[in-house]
Design a protein that fits this description.
The chain is mostly beta strands. It has one domain. The chain contains no helices and nine strands. The strands form two sheets. Strands 5, 6, 7, 8 and 9 form a five-stranded antiparallel β-sheet that branches. The protein binds calcium ion (2 copies).
Length: 92
């Protein structure tokens, strides 16, 4: 699989095949781009030691899942596809 990363001042996006995860300073979201019954989520670590997952809860409908965060700055994240695997970690 090909993993690409693009960053800007405000957000970073990881693409893993057609699946994606995006993170801003304190929030992340996921995009399921494959109609394969495998869910997609952003796997996130934060400065306060937090660790959480943000799912694209409605699957491959062409829309991003909701932004979510715990209020702490995101230090690294990756995109994961359920039952398949995850991208490399991207540090913010
Ligand atoms: Ca999928
Ligand atoms: Ca979706």
């Amino acid at each position: 699989m090909v993993v690409t990363v693009s960053t800007s001042a405000s957000a970073a996006t990881i693409s893993h095949g057609s699946d994606k995860a995006e993170a801003s300073d304190t929030q992340a979201r996921a995009y399921d781009g494959e109609y394969d019954n495998n869910g997609v989520y952003a796997d996130v670590y934060t400065l306060n030691g937090g660790h959480y997952s943000v799912w694209d809860g409605n699957g491959a409908d062409g829309n991003w899942g909701p932004w979510s965060g715990n209020g702490s700055r995101i230090t690294k994240f990756r995109v994961c596809e359920d039952r398949v695997g995850c991208s490399a970690w991207v540090n913010l």
